[in-house]
Design a protein that fits this description.
With 277 residues, this protein is α+β, with helices and mostly antiparallel strands. It is built from seven helices and 14 strands.
Length: 277
């Protein structure tokens, strides 16, 4: 078991704890928690800040960029040095980007799924995203959603993964962080393979808690998650030659496994990438 070193230092009235010497600092000390904010600073350091400490952190040049939704990184993320977890971007761009412009196989077999019980085991969005970039003819023209995520116009600490399209297991963890139930409680399934909830307490919990996570970052730091229109977000995985897996919300409906959209579909898709740290 590796040693854990804590370096405690003080700036003004605030105490910072650096964990494992890996340049992720807990603002105000204490432990990281789901619902905290992953932040970058004008000094280039990365911080995790609770909602209670966020105003003070902003005053010291620390900017929230993502909501922490999991403290259980994958082994692949740990191998890269991102030992703490991952978050979803506070900001989003409604840019109508297709997953790809041609219907054919692009992903490795380890990022290709038909059923949620298999796909939700995949929490390696960084690996899945960069398999696309490293093993295909890749550009903004060929894979618009991937390009938009990787080149997301929000600065990220150099000690992080940078931005990427999430794996389905990560969007599922986002749901659980917002107080929803297990995917096996899906109230709707169809022949196309879509799974979701309609007009139930889990959909309401997602909007309520995600709304709190986002808005608590403060005006100008976040993009609201709309309830009054269809919003689709791509994951990095595919179902087959023609289709990829997305995450869709509309009003009281959440399709946490949206398996019936062509890879080339762009209408109502938007970019809200994830980040590992």
């Amino acid at each position: 078991m590796s040693n854990i070193y804590l370096i405690i230092f003080q700036s003004g009235h605030n105490i910072f704890v650096r964990i494992n010497g890996d340049n992720v600092n807990v603002y105000g000390g204490g432990n990281m928690a789901v619902g905290d904010y992953y932040c970058y600073s004008t000094t280039g350091q990365a911080y995790v800040v609770s909602a209670a400490n966020l105003a003070a952190a902003k005053a010291e040049g620390i900017t929230p960029i993502a909501v922490v939704i999991s403290l259980n990184p994958s082994q692949n993320d740990k191998n890269h040095g991102w030992k703490h977890g991952y978050g979803v971007s506070l900001k989003a761009v409604f840019d109508n980007k297709a997953w790809a412009v041609e219907e054919k196989l692009y992903q490795s077999s380890s990022h290709r799924f038909t059923l949620p019980e298999d796909g939700f085991k995949d929490v390696d969005g960084y690996e899945g995203t960069h398999y696309i970039t490293d093993n295909n003819v890749y550009s903004a023209a060929t894979h618009p959603a991937f390009f938009a995520a990787i080149n997301f116009d929000v600065p990220a600490p150099t000690t992080s993964s940078g931005w990427y399209l999430p794996a389905p297991g990560q969007t599922y963890q986002m749901l659980l962080a917002c107080g929803t139930g297990d995917y096996t409680t899906a109230s709707y399934k169809n022949e196309a393979g879509d799974y979701g909830w309609q007009n139930n307490t889990y959909a309401q919990a997602f909007y309520r808690n995600m709304g709190t996570f986002l808005s608590s970052a403060g005006e100008g730091y976040y993009t609201a998650w709309p309830e009054d229109r269809t919003v689709r977000t791509w994951t990095c995985v595919e179902k087959n030659e023609a289709k990829s897996i997305g995450f869709e919300t509309y009003g009281a409906q959440i399709w946490f496994w949206n398996a019936d959209d062509s890879k080339t579909l762009s209408n109502t898709f938007y970019t809200r990438p994830f980040i590992s740290f």
